[in-house]
């Protein structure tokens, strides 16, 4: 089970982290996640993903100011870089991350 401490440690210890918030009842969450994971794998060599089921870990979403699902938070070098909720495309998320990620890893 996820904890705030585990997620914060992952963010501190990795250059690029995505935290994906979803719930079992969210059909969009389940359709989006595999596409997003495939796109991350295809475009970035080192991206850590933490998945948070808000129905299991009710304290985590409010801690990160997440009140809608699906929500994607992207951290680059320990700082929140991108926040997308509900309506997002995989291409949109990847294109917003790509340039800063490439600058950080070059």
UniProtKB/TrEMBL annotation:
Q: Which segments constitute the Thioredoxin domain? A: 5-97
Stored CDD domains:
TRX_family (cd02947)
Concerning SUPFAM superfamilies, the annotation shows: Thioredoxin-like
Q: Which Pfam families match?
A: Thioredoxin
Of the GO CC terms on this record, one is:
cytoplasm
GO molecular-function annotation terms?
Answer: protein-disulfide reductase activity
What InterPro entries does the entry give? Thioredoxin-like_sf, Thioredoxin_domain
Record-linked PANTHER family? GEO12009P1
Q: What is this protein called?
A: Thioredoxin like protein
Which lineage do the record's taxonomy fields give for this organism?
A: Bacteria, Pseudomonadati, Campylobacterota, Epsilonproteobacteria, Campylobacterales
């Amino acid at each position: 089970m996820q904890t705030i401490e585990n997620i914060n440690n992952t963010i501190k210890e990795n250059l690029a982290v995505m935290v994906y918030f979803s719930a079992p009842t969210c059909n969009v969450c389940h359709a989006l996640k595999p596409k997003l994971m495939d796109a991350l794998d295809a475009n970035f060599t080192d991206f850590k993903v933490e998945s948070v089921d808000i129905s299991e870990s009710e304290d985590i979403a409010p801690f990160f100011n997440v009140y809608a699902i699906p929500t994607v938070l992207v951290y680059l070098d320990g700082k929140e870089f991108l926040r997308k909720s509900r309506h997002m495309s995989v291409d949109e998320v990847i294109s917003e991350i790509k340039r800063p990620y490439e600058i950080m890893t070059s």
